[in-house]
Specification:
Elements: H1 6-21, E1 25-29, E2 42-46, E3 49-58, H2 64-69, H3 71-74, H4 76-82, E4 91-97, H5 106-123, E5 140-144, E6 151-157, E7 167-172, H6 176-202, E8 205-212, H7 220-232, E9 240-245, E10 251-258, E11 261-262, H8 263-268, E12 275-277
Parallel strand pairs: 3-8, 4-7, 8-9
Antiparallel strand pairs: 1-2, 2-3, 4-6, 5-6, 9-10, 10-11, 10-12
Length: 288
């Protein structure tokens, strides 16, 4: 199940600031507990500078975390039935629309699951293989399956050098760029004013941390590309914005925008400024 890790992500950024400024954090505060009118996650001081930090989890589309939370009930029966039933000479991938099974009664879900299992078993041997990861040539694309109220696609790839699975389900997201933009815009509209109030009222240096827990549809470049036009259009943007990929092992973090310099600027200069994070070594700064 995909979850967000607010407390540990906040601790990772605080540690990074301490390393950068070569000073310990002091005067840690939890403004929500203080009933502050602008309750950021944490406020603290490093090297004489007050910082205000906000965390937000980002989804590639609304409902993604909920979809993943329901994956075992909705998709695992299909995967379990097919993962060892198609042989080991190829890797098969069934692509279905995102949220296609959400909100349906379980009797209908089970019927759709059975229809998909039977169809894949019958169809897979007839599908010509493509080079691994080549999605440009759809093996069987946008097919109407009897008993299934949405179209699906089935890919057959020549196996990778190391393949620990031979069947998987992926999700097709229509208009994914706009959906991602809508999700990040909602975070911007919620978090920017709160941080700006700390800059105005307390002369704080403001930090926004975007936590990415989706390894399929999101990465630091996509987040930056979406975030930049939204942030640069506003005068209340934070001083520093980072993205932390908690879907990776170990976690990884990158600057998105710091004092007008973006991830792309750092990358072009040959300094991506990314760093690995071991979550096992982090205490949680908040209760979430």
């Amino acid at each position: 199940m995909l979850t967000f890790n607010e407390g540990k992500v906040c601790e990772a950024i605080v540690q990074r600031l301490g390393q950068r400024l070569k000073a310990p954090r002091i005067d840690m505060r939890w403004p929500e507990d203080e009933q502050h009118p602008h309750p950021v996650e944490i406020a603290f001081t490093v090297a004489g500078q007050l910082f205000a930090l906000e965390h937000t989890g980002i989804e590639p589309f609304k409902g993604h975390v909920q979809m993943d939370a329901e994956a075992e009930r909705l998709f695992k029966p299909i995967v379990d039935a097919l993962k060892d039933a198609l042989g080991t000479s190829a890797v098969f991938e069934l692509m279905i629309p995102a949220n296609a099974l959400q909100g349906r009664k379980m009797t209908e879900v089970r019927s759709i699951q059975r229809a998909l299992i039977d169809w894949v078993k019958a169809t897979a041997p007839t599908v010509p293989p493509q080079p691994y990861g080549d999605y440009k040539k759809t093996s069987v694309g946008r097919v109407a399956v009897p008993g299934v109220p949405f179209a699906v696609s089935l890919y057959r790839f020549a196996p990778a050098l190391v393949a620990d699975h031979h069947f998987q389900i992926t999700h097709l997201v229509q208009n994914s760029e706009q959906l991602r933009k809508d999700c990040i815009r909602a975070s911007v509209e919620k978090k920017f004013p709160k941080l700006a109030a700390w800059k105005r009222d307390h002369n704080a240096r403001t930090i926004l941390v975007l936590e990415d827990n989706d390894i399929q549809l999101t990465n630091q470049a996509i987040v930056t590309e979406t975030f930049l036009p939204l942030a640069l259009a506003r005068s209340d943007r934070p001083d520093e914005t980072y993205v932390v990929a908690s879907c990776m092992d170990p976690w990884h973090a990158w600057p998105v925008l710091i004092d007008g310099q973006s991830y792309f600027d750092f990358a072009q200069a040959g300094d991506a400024q990314d760093w690995p994070i071991d979550p096992a070594m982090l205490p949680a700064l908040t209760k979430r």
